Amino acid sequence: MQKKMDETEHQGLAGMTPSGNGVLAGIPARALDLTLTRSAIRMQHSHSWSIDKVNAVHDLVICLEGQGDYILDEERVRLTPGMAMMIPAGTRFQGRNLDPQRAYTGLAQHFRLDLFGHHDLLGRMRYRQVVRLSRWPMIGPLVRHYRATAPAGSTTLMMHHAFMVILTEFIEDAFITWTSPRDTALDESEGLSVAVMMAATQIAADPLQPGLAERTVAAAPYNDDYFRREFRRRLGSTPVKYQEFKRMEVGMQFLEAGCSVTETAHRLGFADTYYFSRLFKRHIGTSPRGWQEQMRRRRDGQWPRGEEDGQVIYPLRPSQG
Length: 321
Known about the structure:
The chain contains 10 helices and 13 strands. By secondary structure, it is α+β, with helices and mostly antiparallel strands. It folds into 2 domains: 1-21 and 206-321, Homeodomain-like (Arc Repressor Mutant, subunit A, Orthogonal Bundle); 30-178, Regulatory protein AraC (Jelly Rolls, Sandwich). Strands 1, 2, 4, 7, 9, 10 and 12 form a 7-stranded antiparallel sheet that branches. Strands 3-8-5-6 form a 4-stranded antiparallel sheet, with no helix packed on it.
């Protein structure tokens, strides 16, 4: 049974994409501020339902049953189960249920998502406003639970956490690209921090892409050397070293799934397995085979080196085990 589970994990990770870290991977959790501006709207619309309005905040709409027909930005949109639509703040939209036989059931949540307390995160990206959620078998039950348990007139801590999961799923499927810092006006006090976080996010989302770190530096609206220094001051490493570490994180996942050191090096784009092993040890604090041994110890209920207190800081210190 354990062998079968290991084989399944190995096969699943073998098909993992280089961008498996996610769109928001480079943004520290404390940099984001999610505000639900009202409780969830439990949509249950008959054939007579219609709406024509503009919201002052963003609105994420998800269809659970039936279908909803909308006009958004002068384009017609039809939502069916498993589809989600983002209505940006200040956007006029119209909606109707054109099916006389079935109610249109779903969820709508009004919210703000700010970066550093001042900058609208969605305003920093280009994204598809309507998507079919790719992991609907997983996220669908959460949406239904969220809709069923949301209080009628208030928001709760659990709602904020659950909605962030739902919203992240939408962003992962809808994301196209980050807008250039040159496209938006940033005040000097926080503009640099936003630029660094956007660069880190781009790197973390696709760390196997050759030369990505230097391209993000060149794209930033600052002197290259100055931006590298500020990136290091905020994140503790230069853009190139940050990409190296994120690359090793992907390697950790391959190794944990049972890939050999040679196979992992190949998947990460290294022709020289020895060079990969040296780089891995420099960033993680143990060799690739040492990491695999730690994972085996974890399965046996032992704490791998560096995890004794529940907080892991890389590279692992020699004294930690």
